[in-house]
Specification:
By secondary structure, chain A is of the alpha+beta class. Chain A is built from 3 helices and 4 strands. In chain A, strands 2-3-1-4 form a 4-stranded antiparallel sheet, sandwiched between helices. Chain A is globular, with a radius of gyration of 13 Å. By secondary structure, chain B is an all-beta fold. Chain B folds into 2 domains: 41-133, Immunoglobulin-like (Sandwich); 149-262, no CATH class. Chain B has one helix spanning 231-237, and strands spanning 6-8, 22-24, 41-49, 52-58, 70-78, 87-92, 101-106, 116-123, 132-133, 154-158, 163-167, 171-173, 179-181, 185-189, 197-200, 202-205, 210-213, 242-244, 250-253, 259-263. Chain B is elongated, with a radius of gyration of 30 Å. The chains are: A alpha+beta (108), B mainly beta (272). The A-B interface holds A 12, 15-29, 34, 42, 97-102 and B 151-153, 155, 194-197, 251-267.
């Protein structure tokens, strides 16, 4: 299973029904932080296309070293996310605040 | 010259010098048994199969002193639990047959209707035993066998102590080409622990025509939230006359603060 994290300022009113994709979203009332769990049948490109077409920002692969995009940092700054944070670091901070199990980055 | 329908009897050589005795082939000469043949005993009571119903019965062994000679067995079917005279199959009695005789009925119109069966034995005089019911109660039939279709539109919202599942626009696409539309609904489980992921096992129940959830020793107000995944629950979800609404457990989580939401795992094979 792969994780794809995303951030949205607007609430997700409807979850897309994509094969092998499970969505989990947490909100504190302001930012909406979510993750798509994608199994082996899921087309990640399809998920990304859907997120982009819905105006939702997706974060870089949390297993890499890329930092969180600036506009997402701004959205998540109240939770202690910095511009130097990778996706994994940022999501660990969000998870610590939210206590929402799906948001915890998996190690593999 | 012998008449048609007559035959000479072969006598022992001791009486060879006597005239041949002619016996007419008239069944009236044999005495009709006074009692009806015994009813067959059910070996395996009626069960549903993916394509209909099935039961088995034991061939009759006529008790000593009873003159019936078993010729065949008749299987009757009715849509009510009242013996009806709709003959659906006849089995020839076969003393060489080992074990029970299995009767499988294919019901092609998969409507989920109930069917009831009886079996009788018939002797060579055409006398028929009293009917033996194959079922001990109402057995539910399959509706369209296992439906290979897709799931859509099942989502959840969560608070720190509750999870509410909602489903809209679900349609079961069945293997026989028929569909079943599921009424929109929701199901809330309260009394949960914050910051925890729970597993749920929803299914479409053919008997009650409703969305139900595997419950028992699960947690929360409904007993339907399971802290860990379980093959037992998964099996319960897929029992006969249940159409699983997920390929595996549906997972939903409670937050420590704020609120959560999510979708139930994308499409599955059975619904759309």
């Amino acid at each position: 299973m792969r994780q794809l994290f995303f951030v949205s300022e607007a609430p997700l009113t409807q979850f897309p029904q994509l094969m092998g994709a499970t969505f989990h979203v947490w909100t504190d009332g302001d930012a909406h932080v979510g993750v798509v769990n994608m199994d082996g049948n899921c087309d990640a490109e399809q998920v990304i296309s859907h997120l982009e077409s819905s105006g939702i920002s997706w974060l870089p692969n949390h297993l890499g070293n890329e930092t969180v995009p600036a506009h997402c940092v701004q959205c998540l700054s109240k939770h202690g996310v910095l511009s130097t944070d990778t996706t994994a670091a940022a999501m660990l901070k969000i998870h610590a605040k939210a206590g929402f199990p799906p948001l915890k980055p998996k190690r593999f | 010259m012998l008449d048609e329908g007559t035959r000479p009897l072969q006598w022992p050589t001791l009486y060879q010098n006597q005239l041949p005795v002619i016996v007419k082939n008239n069944v009236q000469l044999a005495q009709k048994p006074l009692s009806l043949p015994p009813s067959p005993q059910i070996a395996q009571t009626l069960t549903g199969s993916p394509t209909g119903f099935q039961f088995s019965f034991k061939q009759v062994t006529v008790p000593t002193g009873q003159a019936n000679v078993i010729d065949s067995y008749r299987v009757y079917r009715n849509t009510a639990n009242v013996f009806g005279r709709t003959l659906v199959h006849t089995f020839k009695h076969d003393p060489t047959h080992q074990g029970s005789i299995v009767f499988s009925d294919v019901i092609t119109s998969a409507t989920g209707a109930h069917f009831y069966y009886w079996v009788t034995s018939v002797d060579t005089f055409g006398q028929e035993s009293s009917p033996q019911a194959a079922q001990s109660g109402t057995i539910f039939g399959s509706t369209g066998s296992i439906p290979p279709s897709l799931l859509n539109g099942i989502t959840y919202t969560s608070t720190t102590t509750s999870i509410t599942w909602s489903w809209t626009g679900l349609i079961i696409f069945r293997a026989d080409g028929t569909t079943t539309t599921i009424t929109d609904g929701n199901r809330q489980t309260t009394g949960l622990t914050a910051s925890t992921t729970y597993n749920f096992y929803p299914y479409w129940d053919e008997k009650t025509q409703a969305v139900l959830w595997v419950n028992g020793s699960g947690t929360g107000s409904t007993g339907e939230a399971w802290a860990s995944t379980s093959n037992t629950q998964l099996q319960q979800q897929g029992l006969r006359n249940r159409i699983p609404m997920s390929g595996a457990a549906l997972q939903a989580s409670t937050p420590a603060s704020g609120s959560g939401s999510g979708s139930g795992g994308g499409r599955q094979r059975y619904y759309q």
